[in-house]
Amino acid sequence: MFQSLSDRLSGVLDKLTRRGALTESDVVEAMREVRRALLEADVALDVVKDFTEKVKAKAVGAEVLRSVTPGQMVVKIVNDELVAMLGSDAQPIDLHAAPPVGILMVGLQGSGKTTTTAKIAYRLTNRDRKKVLMASLDTRRPAAQEQLRVLGEQTSVATLPIVAGQTPLQIARRAEDAAKLGGFDVIIYDTAGRVTVDEELMDEVRDVKAAIHPHETLLVADSLTGQDAVNTAKAFDGRIGVTGIVLTRADGDGRGGAALSMRAVTGKPIKLIGVGEKWDALEDFHPGRIASRILG
Ligand code: GDP
């Protein structure tokens, strides 16, 4: 992820640091190149503008330009602004609530929602030693509940037994009862997705959310879809409210535009990124580390 952006930015910033003295126009020219590199990485235009303006405003100050190492100071400003744009601090899944803590997974069909449900369950079970129950509320796709059952078997995580003919709400209630009875710490609810954002999907998810009051509502979005992923997140957040984002297929995304724009556009943190098809291919999103990776 971010390879071409990283190469481009390193090129621009290396040029600045190799120079001894810097003028305002050197910085302005460098920011023009940074802007081009970010746009090529498919970062949202407003985010790019805002970013380069902020860097420019801080970098052309007399203190920076007259310092002994102006180039390095500009690099530090770029780094700090990048971290701020990505959300500053890592935001792990929050489990601080009375058990069973509900995590509602929402998103478009094919975004990786069911896989991510299993990955999170796998991580909470094996790393955090939580007792996790997974429940599929997807009554639209006949195979969806069965798919989750199979994933539960593969990851050795409990799934709610399938009862034919129940509505998503009935399944959710049954999951809650089962989790309380069984002493589970966490319930992860997988929901139905659609190919596009539509009213019916939003209404259904909103009703489920209103009924179960999940502690976390995670929007799963496909990194490869770039700005569409950002727009999807915005639509879901506007209609049902999300607490965070999981960006999947980061392993195949050479540009990283969704990851870079998501926080600034939606105001919601990327909590996790999916980096492969295996159960453990899930990473925390650390703005500081990502910025370091981008700037080499
Ligand atoms: P859903 O329709 O949103 O539930 O999507 P699925 O969970 O069924 O995922 C669709 C496909 O994406 C599956 O083949 C997954 O293995 C794959 N997938 C999910 N997350 C990732 C990821 O982070 N990286 C890669 N490479 N593939 C993923």
From TrEMBL:
Topology with respect to the bilayer: Peripheral membrane protein
A GO cellular-component term linked to this record: signal recognition particle
Subcellular compartments: Cell inner membrane; Cytoplasm
Catalytic activity, as annotated: GTP + H2O = GDP + phosphate + H(+)
Primary subcellular site in the record, as a coarse category: membrane
Gene Ontology biological process terms from the UniProt entry: SRP-dependent cotranslational protein targeting to membrane
UniProt keyword terms in alphabetical order: Cytoplasm, GTP-binding, Hydrolase, Nucleotide-binding, Ribonucleoprotein, RNA-binding, Signal recognition particle
GO MF term set: 7S RNA binding; GTP binding; GTPase activity
Enzyme Commission identifier(s): 3.6.5.4
Binding site for GTP: 107-114, 190-194, 248-251
All copies of domain SRP54-type proteins GTP-binding, residue ranges: 269-282
Function: Involved in targeting and insertion of nascent membrane proteins into the cytoplasmic membrane. Binds to the hydrophobic signal sequence of the ribosome-nascent chain (RNC) as it emerges from the ribosomes. The SRP-RNC complex is then targeted to the cytoplasmic membrane where it interacts with the SRP receptor FtsY. Interaction with FtsY leads to the transfer of the RNC complex to the Sec translocase for insertion into the membrane, the hydrolysis of GTP by both Ffh and FtsY, and the dissociation of the SRP-FtsY complex into the individual components.
Family assignment from sequence similarity: Belongs to the GTP-binding SRP family. SRP54 subfamily.
Subunit structure: Part of the signal recognition particle protein translocation system, which is composed of SRP and FtsY. SRP is a ribonucleoprotein composed of Ffh and a 4.5S RNA molecule.
Domain notes: Composed of three domains: the N-terminal N domain, which is responsible for interactions with the ribosome, the central G domain, which binds GTP, and the C-terminal M domain, which binds the RNA and the signal sequence of the RNC.
Protein name: Signal recognition particle protein
Naturally occurring in which organism (per UniProt): Hyphomicrobium denitrificans (strain ATCC 51888 / DSM 1869 / NCIMB 11706 / TK 0415)
Residues of the full protein shown: 1 to 296 of 526
